[in-house]
Amino acid sequence: MEHVDHILIVDDDREIRELVGNYLKKNGLRTTVVADGRQMRTFLESTPVDLIVMDIMMPGDDGLMLCRELRAGKHKTTPILMLTARNDETDRIIGLEMGADDYLVKPFAARELLARINAVLRRTRMLPPNLVVTETSRMLAFGRWKLDTSARHLLDGDGTMVALSGAEYRLLRVFLDHPQRVLNRDQLLNLTQGRDADLFDRSVDLLVSRLRQRLLDDAREPAYIKTVRSEGYVFSLPVEIVGAPA
Amino acid sequence: MNLSLRWPRTLASRLSLIFLIGLILAQALSFGAQYYERYESAKNTMLGNLETDVSTSIAILDRLPANERPNWLQQLQRKNYGYLLNEGEKGTPMDMEMPDAPIAMASIVDAVGKQYPMTFTDIPGPRKHFQAHLKLSDGNPLTIDVRPAMVPLSPWLPIVLIGQLALMLACSWLAVRIAIRPLTRLAEAVDTLDPNTHPVLLDEEGPTEVAHAAKAFNAMQARIAAYLKERMQLLAAISHDLQTPITRMKLRAEFMDDCVEKEKLWNDLGEMEHLVREGVAYARSVHGATEESRRTDLDSFLDSLVFDYQDVGKDVQLSGKSLTVIDTRPHALRRVLVNLTDNAVKFAGAAELLVEKKADGSVSVKVMDRGPGIAEAELAQVMEPFYRVENSRNRSTGGTGLGLAIAQQLALAIGGTLTLSNREGGGLCAELKLKP
Questions:
Q1: Which of A39, A226, B116, B148 is paired with B43 by a 20 to 30 Å CA distance?
Q2: A43 interfaces chain B, CB cutoff of 8 Å
Q3: ipTM of the assembly?
Q4: Is the pLDDT assigned to residue A87 strictly greater than 70?
Q5: Is A74 exposed, middle or buried, given 0-12, 13-18 or 19+ CB atoms closer than 10 A?
Q6: What is the architecture of the domain spanning B201-288?
Q7: How far is the alpha carbon of B393 from chain A, nearest alpha carbon, in Å?
Q8: Contacts of residue A155 in chain B, CB cutoff 8 Å?
Q9: Is-above-0.90 flag for pTM?
């Protein structure tokens, strides 16, 4: 029998969780809805799920706490998509630090949620990252750079922030998650498709050249992202996880 | 030259002036009184002495044989008067009734006038003096030469006076300084008062009045912060509570069959959602960012912003290079530029960003469009919250009237200034100036 992705929805608002559940069901997913952390734990005891959609603001244990709990326990690799009522950068940062794979700001459209769920599932299945960043160790160090994975910017040797556009960050993150591994253009395109999936029309090659500029990498003698003729690109330096700066 | 005296501007100089004038006047009065008293007592002593001394001296000279008299003159010579055994000098005759007759004259008349009738003459000259002429009992003339003079002042007196003056100057300077300093500190504190950041509390020590003022100021600061916080919490609470029903409605709308009504409902919900988000953002921008400032490479910052627009198909271009690393709060700066760029894209369909480094080290980022611009009279008002330009398409495009207000607040919060102007050839230019 064909595998149907099982999505667990955790939200304290009955109407929202049921509307979301019905919409996802209508679009061919299997869904279970629970109201809080207690019910979520009980359900996960017996049934594994493919992805958890979780509200941040909940009475009792909030989404951030539950997310941290899941990441520390046996559901380390279950993808989590956060729903946040606040459109605030700091919330986003905290959510991602706690180990969520993506987030969506309320009020959201159900079709956008569906697109995100599919993107996260595709991303985590195709190439599971070999480095897992956590709340305390969220910096990826390579060469003379560090990437702050929650604030989504680069830091150079003396701590100056170098900003990245959304697409640049996603591409760099894909490279850093899979260092010294040749990635072809299709893989890169798939993995970098994030929130603006349908609008994203830049070619991978253009993005790579932009990223090289940002990293001050010489396009003729690249030190970071090397071109592999007729195959794709490879990130050629080792990457390590380091603690966040104080 | 303007000779008229002007009341000085500063409180410090006014107080100093009052203190100084008062102290000098008081000092002069007491010095004058003492001087007068000293003069009176010296005069009385001197005149008393003069009477007995003159009568004694004349009695001695009268009894001495005429040839021995010159030998005694030396012993009878006094500081202010002496004796001459001749007719004396010619001078203006003086009368006891004259209004300016020296008092010494009366004393001499009192002492010996009864035995020896005498005449007085005033001798003019560089040192004014007068002489009394009389005949001794043997018929020889005798002249008393009187040179009235006060006992001279001590040479150290002016030094003491100068010392006193210096002491008064120092004291009034100190007093004024002590009185003015808390006021200056208070003014500085009010100047730098920014309820959005951590309050700068005044020291509540010191003299009662100063401590009172400091306490009142600190309390006022806390009240302003509390009001702002309350306003922020109110806005945040309302918009948070609205988000859940809007989410439900959006989800329900997605189950509806496609029709014109669904489309309209969807647009209305979008507008509500936008307003709720902007409301929260405005409340937060007024309350101040909690974000830490960090060293930011400005060119890559602007590049990434522009690429984010281009990646979703918006016509946003960047020109110029600043080659600068600035200390700023990146999210706040991004929000300012995003709001300006969104406006430009909304009203003109395209935005041009221009970054320039100025000679004084400051950086200017201009967000320009070729849209309808804003009437000159309204340029200042559009930065106010919920203000919408008349006749603009703002309402129909779902503007909240908060975008520019948020940009303005955040620009201030990161120490920059935001100015709007109309471009030559049409369109709006929003310039954000950042200090080095």
A1: B116
A2: no
A3: 0.73
A4: no
A5: exposed
A6: Orthogonal Bundle (1.10)
A7: 25
A8: none
A9: no
